[in-house]
C-alpha cells in the first residue's frame, strides 16, 4: 500500500472530544510552529511538527480511518463521550420450542425397594448428569470451572477501581490481537499488537506491534545489545479475535523504537483504539496481552519515570507491578491502558518492564504518514535526568554547584562527534538548541521535532544536522557551548564503549614504572 498519508476529518465542534479522522494527502505548510492540538482539531494545514498532524476534509479517500490520538494538552471527561462500537446481532430468532429444563430425579421413600423404580432411576440419573455436563460446557458457564487469573478478580486492593478498570479493559481488548512469527516453518516469537488504521474499501488494516516479533537470537541475549538483528522475511501470522488467522505483511520496522507495522487483509472493520498522551508517575494502568487461546491477560501496575540502565533506550517509561505477580510471556507489543481504556504506551520487554509512551508513538506515526520513515538524531550519548535522582543527590548538587536540572551524560560512544568535541561522562547537558530539557522523554520528543524541520527543508535520511549544546564540564566546573553534528537516521543507535588492547610495549613500561 502507499505510505503517503491521506486523511480526512469530521467537522470540529466546541467539544474537546477527539473524533475519528479520515484522509487525503497532507500538504506542506511553512511558518511558525503552532501549539500542539488534538488531531481532530487541526484542519487544512500541513503539519509543522509530528505532534501537529494535519486533518484535511476531502471525499477522495473517505474509507481510510485512523486511531485517535489525544495529546497531553487535551481535556476529556471520565466516561461521557466514550465511543463504543455498536454491533447488531446477526442471530435469527428460533421458532423451535424451548428444551425442557433438566430436573434431578429422585426415588420416593415408599418406592425405594422396587427394582423397576431403581432401574428407571439409574437411567434417568445418567441422562440428567449428561445434560448437566452439556450445560456446564456452555460458553456462559465456563466461569464455574475456569479459575480466574485476572488481577481484577483476585486482588482486593483493586476494589476501588474494579468497575472502571473492567470497562476500560473490555473496551481496549477489542483492539488487541496476537501475532506469531515463523522462520522456515519453525516458531520464532509471539507478540501482541494493536490496530491503528484501517481501509474499509481495500479491506485492509494496519497493526502496530513490537519489533521483537522477528528479532534474531534468544531473548535472554538481548540484554547485552543496543540494536537487534531482525528476520525481515519471517512469516507472520495474525490471530484474529474470531479465531481465524491471516498473513501479515511487513510495511515498516523501526529499529531504535523497536516497533513494527504490518498490513493485514480483514473481512470486516476492526476496532481502532484511542491513544492518550497524558501520563503521570504513579498512575494506575493495566498491561494487556493475549495467550495462545486468545484469552486476554491483565496485569495491574503503576507508571514510573526512571533512569535508563545500560542498553535501555532514553525514550522508555517503566511499568511497576507487584513483585508477587507472574510476568506475562506474551504481552510484548501489547498496550498499556489507563482507566478510560485509552492506550498510554506500547509494551517493550527488553530488559526491565518498559514501554514506549503514546506521546512518542504519536510523533513517530505522524512522521511515518508524512515522510514514510521514523527518523531521530543520533547524538552518540546516553543520559540520566537529574530530575529523577534521589532528592538528597539533587539537593547536594544544587547546594554545592547551583545546578538542579538537566541531563547527566552517562555514556559517550567511542569516536563519536560528541567525544571529539570534548563531552565526557559526568558532564551535564543543560540545553539543546536553547531549550532546557529535564527528562530523556522530553529530549526524545525534541529530537523528533528537529528531524521534522530537517525533512521540511527537503533534506533526507543519513545526513548531518547541527545541534547547539550548553554543557557543564563536571571536571573543570565551567559552562561552554558547542555545536554537535548529529546523524539523522531511522536505524537503531548503538553506543560503542571505549576500549583498547594492552600491548606488550605498554606492559613493559608498566613493569618499569613499578
From TrEMBL:
Domain PDZ stretches: 408-447
InterPro entries: PDZ_6, PDZ_sf, Peptidase_S1_PA, Peptidase_S1C
Pfam families: PDZ_6, Trypsin_2
Annotated region described as Disordered, given as residue ranges: 1-58, 75-106
An annotated Gene Ontology molecular function: serine-type endopeptidase activity
Biased composition (Basic and acidic residues): 21-32
A GO biological-process term: proteolysis
Family that this chain belongs to: Belongs to the peptidase S1C family.
Official protein name in the record: Predicted protein
Organism in which the protein naturally occurs: Hordeum vulgare subsp. vulgare (Domesticated barley)
Gene: LOC123452759
Amino acid at each position: 500500500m502507499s505510505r503517503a498519508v491521506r486523511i480526512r476529518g469530521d467537522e470540529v465542534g466546541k467539544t474537546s472530544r477527539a473524533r475519528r479522522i479520515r484522509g487525503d494527502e497532507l500538504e506542506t505548510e511553512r511558518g511558525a510552529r503552532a501549539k500542539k492540538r488534538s488531531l481532530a482539531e487541526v484542519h487544512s494545514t500541513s503539519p509543522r511538527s509530528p505532534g501537529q498532524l494535519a486533518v484535511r476534509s476531502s471525499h477522495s479517500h473517505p474509507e481510510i480511518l485512523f486511531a485517535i490520538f489525544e495529546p497531553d494538552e487535551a481535556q476529556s471527561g471520565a466516561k461521557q463521550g466514550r465511543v463504543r462500537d455498536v454491533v447488531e446481532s446477526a442471530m435469527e430468532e428460533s421458532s423451535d420450542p424451548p428444551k425442557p429444563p433438566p430436573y434431578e430425579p429422585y426415588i420416593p421413600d415408599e418406592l425405594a425397594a422396587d427394582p423397576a423404580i431403581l432401574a428407571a432411576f439409574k437411567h434417568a440419573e445418567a441422562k440428567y448428569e449428561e445434560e448437566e455436563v452439556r450445560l456446564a460446557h456452555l460458553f456462559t458457564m465456563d466461569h464455574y470451572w475456569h479459575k480466574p487469573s485476572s488481577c481484577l478478580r483476585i486482588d482486593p486492593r483493586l476494589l476501588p477501581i474494579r468497575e472502571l478498570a473492567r470497562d476500560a479493559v473490555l473496551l481496549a481488548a477489542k483492539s488487541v490481537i496476537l501475532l506469531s512469527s515463523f522462520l522456515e516453518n519453525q516458531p520464532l516469537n509471539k507478540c501482541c499488537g494493536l490496530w491503528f488504521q484501517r481501509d474499509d474499501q481495500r479491506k485492509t488494516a494496519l497493526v502496530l506491534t513490537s519489533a521483537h516479533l522477528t528479532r534474531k537470537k534468544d531473548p535472554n541475549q538481548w540484554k547485552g545489545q543496543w540494536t537487534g538483528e531482525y528476520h525481515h522475511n519471517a512469516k507472520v501470522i495474525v490471530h484474529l479475535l474470531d479465531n481465524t488467522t491471516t498473513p501479515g505483511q511487513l510495511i515498516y520496522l523501526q529499529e531504535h523504537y523497536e516497533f513494527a507495522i504490518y498490513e493485514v487483509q480483514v473481512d470486516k472493520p476492526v476496532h481502532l483504539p484511542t491513544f492518550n498522551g497524558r501520563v503521570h508517575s504513579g498512575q494506575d494502568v493495566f498491561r494487556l496481552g493475549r495467550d495462545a487461546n486468545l484469552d486476554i491477560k491483565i496485569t495491574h501496575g503503576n507508571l514510573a519515570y526512571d533512569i535508563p540502565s545500560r542498553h535501555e533506550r532514553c525514550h522508555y517509561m517503566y511499568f511497576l507491578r507487584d513483585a508477587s505477580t507472574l510476568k506475562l510471556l506474551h504481552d510484548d507489543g501489547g498496550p498499556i491502558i489507563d482507566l478510560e481504556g485509552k492506550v498510554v504506551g506500547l509494551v517493550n520487554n527488553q530488559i526491565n518492564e518498559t514501554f514506549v509512551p503514546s506521546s512518542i508513538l504519536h510523533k513517530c506515526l505522524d512522521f511515518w504518514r508524512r515522510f514514510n520513515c521514523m527518523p531521530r538524531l543520533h547524538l552518540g550519548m546516553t543520559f540520566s535526568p537529574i530530575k529523577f535522582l534521589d532528592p538528597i543527590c539533587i539537593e547536594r548538587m544544587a547546594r554545592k554547584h547551583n545546578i538542579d536540572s538537566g541531563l547527566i551524560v552517562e555514556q559517550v560512544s567511542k569516536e563519536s562527534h560528541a567525544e571529539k568535541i570534548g563531552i565526557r561522562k559526568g558532564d551535564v547537558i543543560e540545553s539543546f538548541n536553547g531549550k532546557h530539557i529535564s527528562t530523556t522523554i522530553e529530549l526524545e520528543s525534541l529530537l523528533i521535532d528537529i528531524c521534522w524541520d530537517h525533512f521540511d527543508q527537503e533534506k533526507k535520511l543519513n545526513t548531518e544536522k547541527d545541534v547547539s549544546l550548553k554543557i557543564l564540564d563536571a571536571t573543570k566546573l565551567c559552562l561552554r557551548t558547542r555545536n554537535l553534528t548529529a546523524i539523522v537516521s531511522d536505524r537503531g543507535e548503538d553506543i560503542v564503549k571505549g576500549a583498547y588492547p594492552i600491548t606488550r610495549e605498554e606492559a613493559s613500561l608498566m613493569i618499569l614504572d613499578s
